[in-house]
């Protein structure tokens, strides 16, 4: 799962294109069996409300960025629990939820919170920032390998490692930033981020591993609580 998360994965996805997915716009998703109907309705409502608020935040906080979010559902029944954001070829922000991700949320607040978090990554320009960091760190590691007299293969290896180390150094901060703005987007869209963040209770805790891509869940819940308090939301 980027599980909402690793957006190395979303970069990869951007490279693969949507052709590999069975995606459908939230608004056009009808659901193919009657019992799916409430879930489809909820997803559509949340997409509308969070999409509109994410657009508002994006217009307020960025210049020259495409703020028209497309929210899609991946209907592939084999697709794992996942939600992620990426940019399409026109730099339009796209948020994709797999069907199993939608099914794994327990209420509209959780769905809104995950969506708000993904939208926040775009508003905060994380894909671009991450690739800048990766390039700078790759170049630096490459230079060191060159100074040590490494051959072309050694330099390339060093660059790859550099890109990885650079991204790892920032990825947890990006997640917490996205949780913070995601809390605001969720709240302004009419949902309760404190209820939404209970989603963390059910996902495996990455703990505080050195090379982990995600902050410990407790740290994420903490930032949601602090932000909610600033919004005047009672715990
Ligand atoms: Zn994230």
Automatic annotation (TrEMBL):
Domain of life: Bacteria
Peptidase M48 domain mapped to chain residues: 77-227
Single annotated GO MF: metallopeptidase activity
KW Ribosomal protein (keyword) present: no
Signal peptide start and end residues: 1-20
Similarity field: Belongs to the peptidase M48 family.
Name by which UniProt lists this protein: M48 family metalloprotease
Required co-factors: Zn(2+)
Record key words, sorted: Hydrolase, Metal-binding, Metalloprotease, Protease, Signal, Zinc
Taxonomic lineage of the native organism: Bacteria, Pseudomonadati, Pseudomonadota, Alphaproteobacteria, Rhodobacterales
Gene3D superfamilies cross-referenced by the UniProt entry: Metalloproteases ('zincins'), catalytic domain (3.30.2010.10)
Cofactor: how bound: Binds 1 zinc ion per subunit.
UniProt source species: Ruegeria atlantica
